Structure formats: structure tokens, C-alpha cells
Amino acid sequence: MLSDTIDAVATELSAQTSLQATDPEIARLIEEEERRQHDAIRLIPSENYASRAVIEATGTVLTNKYSEGYPGRRYYEGQQVIDPIETLAVERARTLFGADHANVQPYSGSVANLAVYLAFTEPGDTVMGMALPMGGHLTHGWPVSITGKWLRPVQYGVSRETGTVDFDEVRQLAHAERPKLIFCGGTAVPRTIEFDRFAEVAEEVGAVLVADIAHIAGLVAGGAHPSPVPHAPVISTTTHKTLRGPRGAMLMCREEHAAAIDKAVFPGLQGGPHDHTTAAIAVALEEALRPEFADYAHRIVDNAKALAGQLMTRGFDLVSGGTDNHLILIDLTSKGVPGKAAAQALDRAGLETNYNTVPFDPRKPFDPSGLRIGTPSVTTRGMGPDEMATIAEMIDRAVDATRAGDQSAIERVREESRELASAFSAPGIDA
Ligand code: DSN
């Protein structure tokens, strides 16, 4: 037992020495990033801390292997180990989400979405998705994306009054434009995605509904958000956000679409899958299948609600008036501070966020009115409602200091945020 531990420590040390010896500059920068992630209060809603086990799986000899094709049907030999790894990942995804079919090979969420277009559309076809400034994603048909250039996108948004999806608009647009695909989900959606209502509209117009659950996959897995599986024949997700896996993506679908989806991913868009990522996805899915993950998912939402409540008490305007999930979109207009200036000052204060457009934003995307924050990372570190109150107070002070140009106040928040961070370990990072 003791010798196993010594061997493990020796292996780890030799791996570190090896990177250090080969490329001390990169080794130092990685170490610096590790320290930065440890010392900051990370509030970007699409980020998280992957477990040590997930990180270990990504840094393995699996990166040396080519395995174009699928388990049992490869174009390269030597798949004795890769096949069971990919099969495990696929089976765990199917079990966790209750899906008929899973493809774990897409390199990223954008590529996963492109595979969906390839499987179901021809260039020039009409597709529908949420507009990027309303909370959608680039690949849901935004004009600068290939999906906006090579297809004919029609875009829905949110109601000016409620900040939530306007289903009258969705229905009207779908009936008028008859899209082949309807994407639901997005990157700045603080409310429950009503998959059932999107499915009704899709069925009325004969469109395929695609649920992009990249942001909320972990919440769905843990039962803290309704599942798209009964309603959406195709589901796209990344694996590194609330799901806490490695950088990667998955597609899930009903059996009738399995062949088209697989063909679109490989050979349609990609060559060899990233087997080290596949293994790490399998590990993350195993972690997400454990009962404690459901507790984690619910705590993310509890924390977001607590943080939202505290911010509103302090006079912050939240798009849609709050949150149902992991994400909060703050409209800073009433605070008299633009989103970018606030995000940059908060970063200096050790509170990592990102500036974001808010629906109907009068400002430009590179300097918008909003701030997007979320609770996956702080929840992973074990923080709870008390810490959310402290974080809201620090955000409030930093935003006031930004308006007043008070650098020393930002510095004081920096000290306090570092102290808060140091009280909670960060998985995957040695203290
Ligand atoms: N970039 C991701 C996010 O931050 O939400 C979406 O692709």
C-alpha cells in the first residue's frame, strides 16, 4: 500500500520534472494559471473545475492514438483499449441522460452543432435559433458564423417585458418560415428552457428540435433542470461546463437519427477522435452518475438563486428578474457602469466574470451593458449561500469602485476575495 503511494508520488514528480525540464516557460505558466484559478472567485458560468481524475485522464498516452471510425469499425489497428474506452463513455452518457444514442467524438460544442446541420440540412435551408444578443449561441445561426452564412437563419429572442422566450414569436416565426431545424438553449439564458413548448412548435411545422444543453448538462444530469430527452430528438452539449468534464462535446439522439449523426461527425466533419478526451468524458460521466452529483447540481441552482437575491437587494437589475439555473445576467445600466469596465475591474478584484450583451442592448457587443455570472465553479469548491452573500457584497463594492475610479477599494476587495478563495480547496488543484 505504502509502496503504491510512493510509486504514485514518484511518477507524478517525474512527470512534473519532465515538463519542467523540457519547457520551463510553459511549466511556469501552467503553474501560474493553477495558482490564478485557485486564488480567484471564478464566476464565469460556462467554466468549472474538473476533478483530478478527469485532468489525469486527459494527460495520458491516449493522445498518441488514431482511431477514425467507431468502436468495432475503425480505420486503424490497435484499438484493443480505445474501443472499450469509447464504448464506456457512450454507455455512461446513455445511462446518465436516458438517451437512445450518444456520440462522444465532437471536438467542441460548435463542431457538435455543425454536425447537426450536416445531418439534417443542405446549404441555404432555413433554420431557426435564438439570436446571440438575446442569449443564443453563435452556431444557432448568428450572421458572422458559418451557420448564418451557409444556411438561411431566422432568429427569435425574448420578450422585452419579461426577458424570457416569447413563444408567440417563436410559433409565428416557425409557421411563417418553416425551418428544418429549431435550436433551443443558449449561452445567456437564466431561465428554465421549456423543451415541451419548443417541441410543440417544432411538431406543428415539421422541424427537428435540437436542444443545446451545453450550459445546463450537469443540471439536467443531476435532476436540477427538466430533461430534453422526452421532447428533443437531437441533443447537443459540451462536457466541460456544469458537467465538469474535459473540454469536449457530445451529441445524443433518438435511434432513428443515430446513423445520420454518427456519419456527420465522422467522416462528415472530423477525422480521428481525441481519445484522451473521450476517456476523460467517460470519467466525468462516471462522476455524474454518483448520487452526490445530483446534490451538487441542486446546490448550483440554490447558490445562483441566493446570489441573485442578494444582488437584487443591492439594486442590481437582473435580466428576467432572477434565475432558475446556474446563470445570472446583470444589466448594469442603472449602476452607470458599462459591462466591460465592470468585468475588468472585477477581474482585478479577484472576481472573474465576463461582459455580455443584454437583450435589446443599446451598446456594442465588445462593450455591452451586461455582466454574465454563474455558480458552477464556486459550488464545486463547496461554497454555499453565506458565501454568495459575501460575493454579492464584493461585486457591489467593486462596481461602485469602478464608477468612482477608486483603485484602492478594488485592491481591498482583491484581498478579501483571495482570503475567501483560500478557505475552499479547488478540485484538481494542489493547494
Ligand atoms: N463560450 C461559451 C460560453 O461561455 O457560454 C459558449 O460557447
Topology:
Elements: H1 2-22, H2 24-39, E1 41-42, H3 52-58, E2 69-70, E3 73-74, H4 82-97, E4 101-103, H5 109-120, E5 126-130, H6 146-149, E6 152-156, H7 167-177, E7 181-184, H8 195-205, E8 208-212, H9 217-221, E9 234-238, E10 249-253, H10 258-269, H11 275-288, H12 291-313, E11 317-318, E12 327-331, H13 339-348, E13 351-352, E14 354-356, E15 370-374, H14 376-380, H15 385-404, H16 407-422
Helix pairs in contact: 1-2, 3-11, 4-11, 5-10, 7-8, 12-15, 13-15, 15-16
The structure holds D-serine.
D-serine binds at residues 46, 109, 137, 187.
Shape: globular
* Strand segment tally: 15
The helical percent reads 40-55%
Look up the CATH topology of the largest domain: Aspartate Aminotransferase, domain 2
The first-level CATH class name of the largest domain = Alpha Beta
What ligands can be seen in this structure?
D-serine
Q: Which whole number gives the mean pLDDT?
A: 96
Biggest beta sheet summary: 7 strands, mixed
Beta-strand content estimate: 5-15%
Structural class: alpha/beta
Number of DSSP helical runs = 16
Count of separate structural domains: 2
CATH-derived architecture of the largest domain: 3-Layer(aba) Sandwich
- Rounded to the nearest angstrom, the distance between the terminal CA atoms is 24 Å
Radius of gyration: 22 Å
* Residue windows where pLDDT falls under 50 for at least 5 positions: none
CATH superfamily of the largest domain: Type I PLP-dependent aspartate aminotransferase-like (Major domain)
Instruction: Give the neighbour order of strands across the main sheet.
Output: 4-10-9-8-7-5-6
